[in-house]
Every structure is written in structure tokens, then in C-alpha cells.
TrEMBL record, chain A:
It is found in: Cell inner membrane; Cell membrane. InterPro entries: MetI-like (IPR000515), MetI-like_sf (IPR035906), Phosphate_PstA (IPR005672). Belongs to the binding-protein-dependent transport system permease family. CysTW subfamily. NCBIfam families: 3a0107s02c. The gene is pstA. This is Phosphate transport system permease protein PstA. GO terms for biological process: phosphate ion transmembrane transport. Pfam families: BPD_transp_1. Residues 315-547 form the ABC transmembrane type-1 domain. The keyword Transferase does not apply. Its main location: membrane.
Automatic annotation (TrEMBL), chain B:
Keywords: Membrane, Transmembrane, Transmembrane helix, Transport. This is ABC transporter permease subunit. The keyword Mitochondrion does not apply. Gene3D superfamilies: MetI-like (1.10.3720.10), YVTN repeat-like/Quinoprotein amine dehydrogenase (2.130.10.10). It comes from Motiliproteus coralliicola. It holds the Pfam family BPD_transp_1. Residues 461-749 form the ABC transmembrane type-1 domain. The keyword ATP-binding does not apply. Belongs to the binding-protein-dependent transport system permease family. The chain crosses the membrane at residues 32-57, 467-489, 501-522, 528-553, 565-585, 614-633, 671-692, 728-749.
Length: 563, 763
């Protein structure tokens, strides 16, 4: 059936198609965004092959480059010509690659652009190894020697058998394991044992100051405090001695490697996190390595101003904050909803309150941040400090941004979500059920506790999960009330009082902002930001999906009652 | 069934003590629950309302009127005391930082330090290192506490009053003294100068300059250049003199600007003459401006020495400063004028030491506090019946020393926390010192103390609306069209999948969108600008062309896709179209823009292009707003009763006609409220704008430039703002504005939605 264009337009069908196009575009945008984050975030951990090639520079000289391709793009030939590069006539675009060449200490920068035409004799030598270092980023090169306390332990000369290289590499791995082991011990002592001593000393100082302020500092107390202090100093000294010994041990081994321009470099094993040979790995090994990297990302601490290493403190901080927030928000939200729906007299007033509460969900989150900073921190926190922690002044205890205020602010922010969801659940319960319960002689409280609340529990649960999902993704208010780029310790540790509500903490969302925009080396940190973003998206999507799932399951459970 | 048998009482006794106890206990529990829920519920609701009240509480002090009352000392009001020192005219009156010690220099050249609260005189000394008496006085700088005296023998004394604070026995003790920075140098006025009547002095980094008008009407300028000896590091002074040929009758004030380039001569006949002394050997009379038709009584510099305050006999004070135009010419311009409701001759003007504020005393004993940039009459009060001879502000602007015509000094407490904030300084164009014209400027930190922070909320509000506008430009059509299709044309089975999928995006943290916008989208758009605009054209046209082609396909193929599943076909089409756009756009770019659209825009159109611009923000924030609008619109359309649309279809209307004439009008309030709520979200969004723009507070609609929004501004500046300062409170005001705006918009939307629901509840 053929119809004319005019008639077709008259039928309105094209407009329907256009609206369909809008849906399609929405779906594509959403899916594309998720795909973009997923691909970039997950790709970061894959041990890509490292290439070695001869590169012809723009001035015609030849250099050897070693690195992995991080990105590629087509550049208009005009731009390249303007930049002083020679491009053959008739070529409109030039393909160029962003090569991650590492060795920042030798080359000055982690990355360099190369044109694809300039790369020649590309090969992937299996001997190439990558060393992830604690400083200066990745190292790419060929292993030549392994040394112990300056003495040669093993050596590989160009032209020797591959087996010799493998043997030397195995030697290196073994020694690296030892160094990592010692490194863990050092970290353990520095973090836990010395941290505990510092915490004790600080407590002693505060006790002394507190007694002094009250005018009750007796000679006995002073002696007591001095004795404890001496004791702590003693154990600190012994720890210090142990640390020195460990530091001496960890500095024992080193490796010697040759880099792209033939330079030979010696690297102490104490500075190396791990070594791997991507070109010598099979797909299976790579997969294993890949998941190992993901695991390390989630459980390690950040290094190098957050641009390397893992995000464990940020995950921990986020979870901790969200947990505290849900503990605060659930009872209050439910009580407010029960009051509004079950106890308050229904009328214009409750209707207005309902609208107001509903609308608070739409108030910009930064406004809550401002409120939290002004009211919670400066007003409440300031007064708490005056009343309960005068000994620490002028250093504020609660009068400064911290975990508790962040949780409280977000609890206030998500309160409307919980109230609205719970109320919806309560309004779903038929009157007849309440009346049935009352008719059987139950009091109102008993009806509420035994009948109404269990039936409304799916709704409450949904509300709390939605609140958690929202809180986990909020960053703007947190920037005012407690998150920092790098927290020295976790808000939960073995030192009294174990949960440090007054401490600042790290947060996944803020981590993204900070590393992506405030870090000195954005280019190197970018894959990490994608990975963090992916993690956050996954967590929040899971929370939302579980909200839906729980709601459906519980609804199913009470379905029989809903009629 | 009828039960005729009498019910025998069950063998239960409800009146046992245990049952009674249980009942009491249950009643108690019930009451307790009511109380707990009631108190808890109300307090939660109150806590929520507290946000509004607290924001208001922090903002209110901005708009508090200033207050003045007698200074309290040891629980009692300070009573006026006899002026310390000689019974002569006052040349100078001031106080130190804590406002505890005052200094009076009188016309005999005697400096008397005194307790500002009791009038008790402390250190007293005759000023100057010569025997000859002092004949004229000039203020150097209030903030540096310097002044100068001319002596009858033609010498000049440059002095500084200074204070040492110590805490013997934990009691604050302030010890004043007078120092002479050039004590070992001879500072002589020009030879031939008579008895100096008016003196001006200015000490700059490399020279000291003085202007003296003597009783014979001669005006001399002396320059004392400071040369630092490299070896001994001693300052050596070389002196030059100069006589200015100016009509010198009726001169009331001489003033030298801080960089010692300009000499201003204010005359009682209403003229202010400016003399350019840059070339000291050939001074130029730059300009003579008629400032007032009445008699000028006094002229002073405002803080920083950039603005002149000229007071006249009709009670008007005018602010003037030199405005530099594009060709570097200076012109002395009147910027604004100040008067109170009952103007009368101004006797004295005193300036604040750290703000652009000043105080004038009128002949009738009235004192008025003004803030210059805010054009704000802060306070107007009758403080004396006998007239005012002199007045001075304390450095922290919390006290006012006032010498009455009868020789008594009174000391007043001033509470004037935020004079720089007024309606005009927040929302109107303000002409700041050093600017060519009035402008809206947000610049919360000043480069040095002489310049004030600039608090115009206009560029921030403008930026907020600009960001929201571009976001809505993308989001509204996409979301509403999408919702129409999903609610009305889509197959139900597909709808249950697509809707939650799009709604999932509402939960996506905006920090992720902001990060992608800033680090991925912004560079992408800069490189592929042509692609973005080609997409805008190609995708709709392409979809239409495809639809027409589809329509003309044989039925056997067409009917394979059942009704309401068309989107499945469109998705790949849109993807292919977008794919085609890449090569197409580079072709278009070659033809139209010489292969570089971004360069074309800056070079040929002269439009500024920032990488992080409104286009990027619009796309990213539009994306964030789409799910909100989509979801509410979809609900509104879907809840239109089927009977309505079915009726229309039965009467022969096409689905599109039904949608246009029946469904959309019915759902329009719901759609409107969806747009409002989306708008509210776009206005308050912080992270996306923070990360996807350069955060420069400019007022320009250009889509290729950035902006700074209220929310982003709070996030950037709040952590560094000093608690209780004007800046802090203005940020609270910004938060309050955001709060009020979104709250009102959302309430409106909610009311409309509820009305809609009631209206169709019956259908």
C-alpha cells in the first residue's frame, strides 16, 4: 500500500515515530552511558600486551618505544601539519595512539602520543616485564640482574636462553614475595601498634588537661600519667627498634633492568608492589591476573595522591556512613509516617505537612549540606565541644566536619524518602484489617505493632533501601560536612572508643570528584576514576534492584490480605 | 442460623487480679505508644521545618538595622567626659584596635592618650622635634596610624602612634607611644613657605609627599624620595619642591592619593581640582569638576584612598573616583551620593578603617552611618544637642568617639555587622572602584584589604537559570516525547521493561554524570562539535525517512513487528544514524567551517569557546533530569482513563488525533508539574555544574561559555568562609534562595498533580 507523503503526515504516523525515536534515544543514552563506564572501568585491570617498536620521530630520528596503547584517535591532517608534523598529501586524518610508556622518573611523563605510521617493527617480546611501583608509577623494561645487598645473585645477558630469563624472573618473584611480606609487617606495626600508642598518649594528654581545667590535678595523678607515658614511650622505643630492623631487611634486594633507550636502572624491591610479564601470559593467566587486580583495587589502600592503588578506605567510609545513616533515619522516618497516617487527625494540616515533606525530597542536596555545616557542626558541635570536650579545645572534637554529622545530614536528606514510602505502605492496608484487629480487643498499639507494621514492612524496607541508594551517591552535601580526600585512618579501629564518629572519612563519590578533578595527574588517574564510578554504579543499581525485589517479595507475602 | 440456646457465660473470670494487671499494663502500653509516636512524629516534622527556620536565622542578621548606644564599661554607661589635652580645636581623634585607648591631637600640637571609657589622660607629649609650634595637621593613613604636622618654622614632622599589648598578671595592658619613622632625617617644607594653613601628606613605599597651603595663598608640594643605602641599609632622603600655580582661595581640603600620583584640591565653591603629579617636574592640572552647587565643607578619602568623599553644606556626601577609560584617560566622576531624610550642613566625616563605610556628623547633631558600595544609609541618629566638633570610628568599627561642640567627648557602642549588604549590592549593578562602569560582579575574596569583596548574586542566579535552561532544552522534548510513546503507544510487555530502565537513571549519582561530562564529554564535544549539531539534524530526519520507507514496505515484513514494538526497530536505526554522522559531519565541517568548527567559532565569529561550557552542562544535566520528567509525565498520561481515548478512537479519530486532542490536554497539568519538578532539580544540581563548567561567574547567554551556579558556588566557597561573616551569611542566603525556589516550585507542581488526581478519580 503506497500513500503519498502528504497523506502520511496527515495520518500523524510520523509524529508517533518521532516519539518512538525519543524513547529509543533515551534508552540508547542510558545504555551507552552504562556501557561506557563498564568498558572503561573494567578495561583498566586487563593486563594489555606491551609493545616494543621503532618509532620515527617528527624530525626523522629513530627511537625505541615500549608501552601499552591506552587510547587511539583520528586527528585532522591540518592540525598535525599546523603542529609541524609532516603528513603526506591527500591524507585527511592521521591515526595516533596514546602510549602509556611509564617510567615517569626517566621520561618525565607516563604517556606520549605516537602516530601510527611512525610505529615500525612492532613486536611484543615476552621478556618485557612491568613493575608496579609505590612511587613514580609503572616501570617497563627487561630484567637483567637480581642483586642482594649489592651482590649479584643472578644475571641474564642478551642472547642467553629463554630458560635463563625465566629462572632469573622466578628468582625475582620469590624475592619480591619476601619484600612484600616484610612490607606488610612494617605497615602492621606502623598502623596498628604505633597507632595504638599514639591514641593512648593523646588520651593521657587529654586526661591531664581535663584534670587541670577542673583544678583537680594532684601530684598522684601527675605521677600516674607520667608513669603511663613512660610505659608507652618504652614500648614505642622497642617498636622503633623492630621497625628499623625490618626496614634494613626490606632494603636488601634489588633488580636491575634495561629500559627502552638502553639505559640500565636499578630498582629496590622495597619500592615494588608487583611484577608481571603481560606478553608471556596466556588468556587463562591473564584472566586470573585480571580478577586479582580487581580484588586488589577493592581491598587496597590508595597510593600516590589517590591516583594508584585501591579504594578500600573509600568503600569502607561510604558503607560506614550509609549504615549509620540508615540506623538514624529508619526509626525516625517510620515514627513520623505512623504518626501522620495513624495518629494525627486527618485534615488540611496533615495534607499540608504531607506536601511539605514530599517536597523536601526535591530540595537541592547542597542546601542540606549548608544546614548541616551551620546547625550540626558549628552550632551543635561547637556546644558539645564546650560542654563535653573542653580539654581538647581549641582543637575541635565535634565542632568540625566528621562522620557523625555527615550521617546525620544525610539522614535528614533521606528522611522524606522513608516517610513517603512508609506512608504509602500504610495507606495500602485496608481499614477492615485494622478494624478486625480492634474488634478482637487489641489496643491501637497492639494493632499497630502486630498487624499494621508487619504488613507495611515491605514499604518501609523499600524506603530505607531507596534512602541508602540516594545517600550512597550524594556528594555535594558531604563536601561540607565531613568527607576528605585522604583520611589517615579508618573510622573503625582497635583504639578506644573503636568507632570514631568525630573523624573525617573517605567516600567513593567524593573520590571520583577529587581524583578526576583535583589530582595532579588526571590522565594517569582516569582509568581508576572510571573503575570507581563503575563500582559506585554497581552498588547503587544493586541497592535499587534489591529494593524492587524485596518490595515484590513482601508484597507477594501479604497479597492475600490486600483485598 | 438462629441460635436460640442462651449463651452460657464462658468459664472465664475477667476480674482476676492478673487479668486486671494485664489490662492496666496494656492500657499503659497503648498510651505510651501514642505518646511516643506523637512526640516522635511531631519532633521529626519540626526538625524538618527547622531547616527553613535555621537558614532564615543565619540570614536575618544581614538585614538587621545597625544600632548605636552608649558604651558600657564595668556595667555602666560611659558618661561624656571633658576632652583630654588643651582646650583648643581638635585636629585628630582616634582609638586603637581594642578601642580602650584613644588619642587626641589638638591645635597646640599636644598629643594626649586617654582611656576612651573614663577620659582619664595617660601619656601626653608635644609633637615634633623642633621648638617651633605646630600650625597644621594632616592625616597620613588611618590603617597605618600615621599623620604629619607642619611647624611654624617650615619643618614637617611625620609621626606614628603605636600600641604595645602585654599581659602582666593576665590583665591586658595597652601601652601607647609616639614614634617618628623619619626621626633622623630633616623634613623641611619648601623654602619660602609661610605659616601653613592646610597640609596633606602621603607616605608610599619609595617616597613621602606633602602638600602645604600657607597663609599667603601659596601651594607647595614637597617630595622626599627614599633611597636605601645598599651597604648600611639606611634610608637617605632627597628632597624636591614645587610650587603649584592654582587659585588657592577657598580651599578646604588637600588630599594626596596613595600612589602619590594625584593631588586633589577641594574648594568651598563646589569645585574639586585634580592635579597629576606623575611627572613631578611638570605637574598638570588634570581636571576641575563641579561637584556641588553648595559649599563644600570637607573632603576625605574612603578606605584604600581610591574614592573621595566630598561633603557639602546641604547635607549631601558624594563619592567620586577616577575612572579610567579604554584609552587610559582618567576622569574624576561622581559615582553616588548620600543623604538622610533631614539633610543639613555636614560638619565632619569619619571613615571606617576596614570597610568602605563612613560616618557623617551634621551641624544639627545628627550622625549618619553609610556604606558606600551598598548605597546604604545604615543608621541615622541624633547624638548631640550642642553640635558636633569631631568624630572618629574605632578600627573595628564597633565604637564611635564623638567630640561635642561644648568640649565633651562621648563614646558610643556601634553594632553594624553587615553594612555592605543591601538589596542594591546583592541584585543591582554596582560601580566598584577601579571599574569603568557599574556591573554585576561576584568576587568573594579581595586581592588586598583596600578592595572590598563583591557580592552580587545576579551572575550566580543568572548562571543557575542558564544551566537549567539548557538542561531543560534537551530534557523536556526528549522526556515528554519518550513518555508519550511509552505510555500511549508502547506494548505493555515492553513498557514494564523500558520504564524502570529509564527510571534507574534517576538513582545514578550525579557525581558520575559530572565526571563523565567534564572528562569525557567536554573534550569529545570540543573535538566533534560538528557531529553534535549534525546529529541534531540527521537523527529526526533520518527517523522520519526510515518511517516512511517502513510504511511502504510490504505487509508481510511490516507485520512481523507487532504494534507497540516499533522501538525495537528504531533503536538500531538511531545507532546507525549516529554512526553515519561521524563521517558526514567531518565532510560538513570541511565544506562549511574549513574543517575546524571549533576554530571557526572563535576565529571567524569571535565567540569565546570554553571547553567546559553550557552545552556540556546542558547535555549532562539534561540527562540527569530526563528520568524525573519522563517518569511523572508517563504516569500522568498513563493515568488518563482509557474510556476517554477509546471514545475518541471509536468516533474515528486516528491515534495521533486522540493523543493530541484528548489525552494530552487531559494530562497537561501533570506534564506541567513534571516539567516544574525537573526544573527544580536542574536548578539545585551541584556536582554536574561544579565538574562540567569552569565555574566562572559571568553573565553571558553564550552556549559555548561556562557559568557558576548558586549551588556550585556554595560548594566551592562554603568550606573556606569565615563563620558569621557577611560572606558566610550571603552563602546561607544563596541556600535559602535555592530552598525557597525549589520548595515553591515543587509545592505548585504537587498541588496541580493532586488536583488532577481528584479530577480523574471519578472518571
Amino acid at each position: 500500500m503506497n500513500i503519498s507523503v502528504k497523506e502520511w503526515f496527515k495520518s500523524g504516523a510520523p509524529w508517533v515515530w518521532l516519539t518512538g525515536g525519543a524513547v529509543a534515544l533515551n534508552v540508547i543514552m542510558v545504555a551507552g552511558l552504562l556501557a561506557l563506564i563498564a568498558v572503561r572501568g573494567l578495561g583498566h585491570f586487563w593486563p594489555a600486551d606491551v609493545l616494543q617498536a621503532d618509532y620515527i620521530e617528527s624530525d626523522g630520528s629513530r627511537v625505541v618505544v615500549i608501552g601499552e596503547i591506552a587510547d587511539s584517535e583520528d586527528v585532522p591532517a591540518i592540525q598535525m601539519r599546523e603542529a609541524g608534523l609532516e603528513v603526506a598529501e591527500g591524507v585527511e586524518t592521521v591515526r595516533r595512539d596514546l602510549l602509556k610508556v611509564g617510567n615517569r622518573d626517566l621520561l618525565g611523563s607516563d604517556f606520549r602520543w605516537v602516530t601510527e605510521t611512525g610505529l615500525q617493527e612492532i613486536e611484543h617480546p615476552p621478556h618485557l616485564f612491568v613493575a608496579e611501583r609505590r612511587e613514580w608509577g609503572n616501570f617497563y623494561g627487561f630484567l637483567r640482574q637480581v642483586k642482594q645487598a649489592g651482590e649479584l645473585v643472578g644475571e641474564y645477558k642478551v642472547g642467553d636462553a629463554d630458560a635463563a630469563y625465566d629462572q632469573l624472573y622466578a628468582e625475582l618473584e620469590q624475592r619480591l614475595d619476601r619484600a612484600l611480606d616484610i612490607h606488610d609487617q612494617i605497615k602492621d606495626i606502623e598502623k596498628h601498634e604505633i597507632g595504638a600508642i599514639n591514641a593512648t598518649l593523646e588520651r593521657l594528654r587529654l586526661r591531664e588537661r581535663s584534670l587541670e581545667l577542673k583544678g583537680q590535678l594532684t601530684a598522684a595523678d601527675q605521677a600516674d600519667i607520667a608513669a603511663s607515658r613512660a610505659e608507652q614511650d618504652e614500648s614505642y622505643k622497642s617498636l622503633q627498634a623492630r621497625l628499623e630492623e625490618l626496614y634494613r631487611q626490606i632494603g636488601r634486594d634489588s633488580l636491575v633492568a634495561e629500559v627502552s633507550d638502553g639505559q640500565v636502572v636499578e630498582i629496590e624491591l622495597s619500592k615494588v608492589v608487583q611484577v608481571f610479564r603481560p606478553n608471556a601470559m596466556g588468556v587463562g593467566t591473564k584472566l586470573g591476573f585480571y580478577f586479582g587486580q580487581i580484588w586488589a583495587f577493592m581491598t587496597d589502600e590508595p597510593r600516590e595522591a589517590n591516583t594508584e592503588g585501591g579504594v578500600f578506605p573509600a568503600i569502607f567510609g561510604t558503607v560506614m556512613m550509609v549504615l549509620l545513616m540508615s540506623i538514624l533515619v529508619t526509626p525516625f522516618g517510620v515514627v513520623a509516617a505512623v504518626y501522620l497516617r495513624e495518629y494525627a487527625k486527618q485534615g488540611t494540616m496533615t495534607r499540608l505537612i504531607r506536601i511539605a515533606v514530599n517536597n523536601l525530597a526535591g530540595v537541592p542536596s547542597i542546601v542540606y549540606g549548608v544546614f548541616g555545616l551551620g546547625f550540626f557542626i558549628y552550632f551543635l558541635g561547637g556546644n558539645i565541644d564546650q560542654l563535653f570536650f573542653p580539654e581538647a579545645l581549641p582543637a575541635p572534637t565535634f565542632g568540625t566536619p566528621g562522620l557523625m554529622w555527615a550521617s546525620l545530614t544525610l539522614a535528614l536528606l533521606t528522611l522524606p524518602v522513608v516517610i513517603v514510602a512508609t506512608e504509602e505502605g500504610l495507606s495500602r492496608i485496608p481499614r477492615s484489617i485494622r478494624e478486625g484487629s480492634l474488634a478482637l480487643g487489641a489496643t491501637k498499639a497492639e494493632t499497630l505493632w502486630k498487624v499494621v507494621l508487619p504488613m507495611a514492612s515491605p514499604a518501609m524496607m523499600t524506603g530505607v533501601i531507596l534512602a541508602v541508594a540516594r545517600a550512597a551517591g550524594e556528594v555535594a552535601p558531604l563536601m561540607l560536612v565531613g568527607v576528605v580526600k585522604l583520611a589517615p585512618s579508618l573510622p573503625l579501629d582497635g583504639n578506644y572508643p573503636f568507632i570514631h564518629l568525630d573523624q573525617k572519612f573517605m567516600h567513593l563519590g567524593f573520590h571520583i570528584y577529587d581524583v578526576g578533578f583535583q589530582s595532579p595527574n588526571v590522565e594517569a588517574a582516569r582509568p581508576l576514576v572510571y573503575a570507581t564510578a563503575l563500582l559506585l554504579v554497581v552498588v547503587i543499581a544493586l541497592l535499587n534492584l534489591s529494593a524492587v525485589a524485596i518490595r515484590n517479595r513482601l508484597r507477594e507475602k501479604y497479597k492475600a490480605l490486600e483485598h | 442460623m438462629k441460635n436460640t440456646a442462651p449463651l452460657s457465660a464462658p468459664d472465664l473470670d475477667f476480674e482476676t487480679p492478673a487479668a486486671k494487671r494485664l489490662r492496666r499494663y496494656r492500657r499503659f502500653k497503648d498510651r505510651l505508644a501514642s505518646a511516643v509516636v506523637g512526640v516522635g512524629g511531631i519532633s521529626v516534622i519540626v526538625a524538618i521545618m527547622l531547616i527553613f527556620i535555621y537558614l532564615l536565622y543565619e540570614v536575618m542578621p544581614l538585614f538587621h538595622a545597625a544600632e548605636i548606644k552608649p558604651w558600657q564599661h564595668e556595667g555602666e554607661e560611659v558618661v561624656p567626659y571633658q576632652r583630654p589635652g588643651a582646650d583648643a580645636d581638635t585636629w585628630y581623634l582616634t582609638a586603637e584596635e581594642q578601642a580602650e585607648v584613644g588619642l587626641r591631637v589638638d591645635a597646640t600640637g599636644l598629643a594626649s592618650f586617654f582611656d576612651t571609657r573614663t577620659g582619664e589622660v595617660g601619656l601626653q607629649q608635644m609633637l615634633g622635634q623642633t621648638e617651633a609650634g605646630a600650625v597644621a595637621f594632616a592625616l597620613g593613613s588611618e590603617s597605618e596610624r600615621t599623620f604629619a604636622l607642619a611647624h611654624a618654622d617650615g619643618n614637617l614632622t611625620f609621626a606614628k602612634h603605636q600600641y604595645k599589648v602585654s599581659y602582666p598578671n593576665d590583665v591586658r595592658t595597652i601601652t601607647p607611644s609616639i614614634a617618628y619613622p623619619y626621626a633622623d632625617q630633616e623634613l623641611a617644607l619648601a623654602p619660602g613657605v609661610g605659616n601653613t594653613e592646610l597640609l596633606a601628606v602621603r607616605d608610599s613605599e619609595n617616597q613621602l609627599m606633602a602638600a602645604a597651603l600657607d597663609d599667603q595663598g601659596q601651594l607647595f608640594v614637597s617630595r622626599y624620595s627614599k633611597d636605601v643605602n645598599f651597604i648600611t641599609e639606611e634610608v637617605e632622603i632627597s628632597t624636591d619642591h614645587l610650587q603649584l600655580e592654582l587659585p588657592t582661595e577657598k580651599v578646604v581640603s588637600l588630599l594626596i592619593s596613595p600612589e602619590t600620583r594625584w593631588l586633589f584640591v577641594a574648594r568651598s565653591d563646589g569645585l574639586v581640582v585634580s592635579v597629576d603629579l606623575r611627572d613631578f617636574d611638570a605637574p598638570q592640572i588634570h581636571d576641575a569638576v563641579r561637584v556641588s552647587d553648595a559649599t563644600i565643607t570637607q573632603a576625605r578619602f574612603l578606605l584604600g584612598g581610591n574614592s573621595l568623599l566630598v561633603a557639602d553644606s546641604q547635607g549631601v556626601t558624594r563619592q567620586l573616583f577616577l575612572v579610567r577609560d579604554d584609552s587610559n584617560n582618567y576622569e574624576l566622576k561622581e559615582i553616588r551620593s548620600f543623604r538622610d531624610s533631614t539633610p543639613s550642613e555636614i560638619a565632619e566625616v569619619a571613615i571606617e578603617h576596614r570597610r568602605k563605610g563612613f560616618v557623617v556628623a551634621e551641624g544639627n547633631g545628627q550622625v549618619s552611618f553609610y556604606n558606600s558600595t551598598a548605597e546604604n544609609l545604615v543608621l541615622n541618629e541624633q547624638l548631640s544637642d550642642s553640635g558636633i566638633a569631631y568624630l572618629a570610628m574605632t578600627p573595628r568599627a564597633n565604637g564611635l568617639l564623638l567630640e561635642q561642640a561644648d568640649g565633651k567627648v562621648s563614646f558610643w557602642k556601634v553594632e553594624n555587622e553587615h553594612p555592605e549588604v543591601s538589596w542594591s549590592s546583592l541584585w543591582e549593578e554596582v560601580w566598584y572602584e577601579g571599574y569603568q562602569e557599574p556591573d554585576y560582579i561576584w568576587q568573594s575574596s579581595a586581592s588586598n584589604d583596600d578592595f572590598e569583596p563583591k557580592y552580587s548574586l545576579a551572575p550566580l542566579s543568572f548562571g543557575t537559570l542558564k544551566a537549567a535552561f539548557y538542561a531543560m532544552l534537551l530534557a523536556t522534548p526528549l522526556a515528554i516525547c519518550g513518555a508519550i510513546y511509552t505510555a500511549y503507544f508502547m506494548a505493555p510487555a515492553m513498557r514494564t521493561k523500558i520504564k524502570p530502565f529509564i527510571e534507574l537513571m534517576e538513582a545514578l549519582p550525579t557525581v558520575i554524570l559530572g565526571f563523565l561530562a567534564g572528562l569525557w564529554l567536554a573534550p569529545f564535544i570540543e573535538k566533534q562539535l560538528a557531529t553534535v549539531f549534525t546529529l541534531l539534524l540527521v537523527v529526526p530526519i533520518g527517523v522520519l525517512v526510515f518511517a516512511y520507507g517502513w510504511h511502504n514496505l510490504p505487509k508481510s515484513i511490516r507485520l512481523r513487528v507487532s504494534e507497540g514494538w516499533d522501538v525495537v526497530v528504531i533503536i538500531p536505526v538511531v545507532i546507525i544514524l549516529a554512526w553515519l554522522c561521524l563521517p558526514l559531519s567531518s565532510g560538513v565541517e570541511q565544506v562549511l567551517f574549513d574543517g575546524d568548527m571549533r576554530g571557526y567559532i572563535t576565529r571567524d565569529l569571535g565567540i569565546t569557546f570554553d571547553q567546559r561550557n553550557a552545552l556540556v552542562v546542558g547535555l549532562a544535566m539534561g540527562f540527569a533530569v530526563i528520568p524525573t520528567i519522563f517518569s511523572i509525565t508517563e504516569d500522568a498520561i498513563f493515568s488518563v482513563p482509557k474510556s476517554l481515548s477509546n471514545g475518541s478512537l471509536a468516533l474515528g479519530a486516528t491515534p495521533w488525533q486522540t493523543l493530541q486532542r484528548v489525552v494530552l490536554p487531559t494530562a497537561s497539568p501533570g506534564i506541567f508539574s513534571a516539567v516544574m519538578i525537573g526544573m527544580g532539580r536542574a536548578v539545585g544540581e551541584t556536582m554536574i555544574v561544579l565538574m562540567a563548567t569552569g565555574n566562572t561567574p559571568i553573565m553571558d547567554l553564550n552556549i559555548f561559555e561556562g557559568m557558576r551556579t548558586l549551588a556550585a558556588n556554595i560548594a566551592v566557597e562554603m568550606p573556606e568562609s569565615e563563620v558569621g561573616s557577611s560572606h558566610f551569611r550571603i552563602l546561607f542566603l544563596a541556600a535559602l534562595v535555592l530552598f525557597a525556589f525549589t520548595f515553591v516550585v515543587n509545592t505548585l507542581a504537587e498541588l496541580i498533580r493532586q488536583r488532577l488526581r481528584r479530577k480523574y478519580g471519578s472518571l
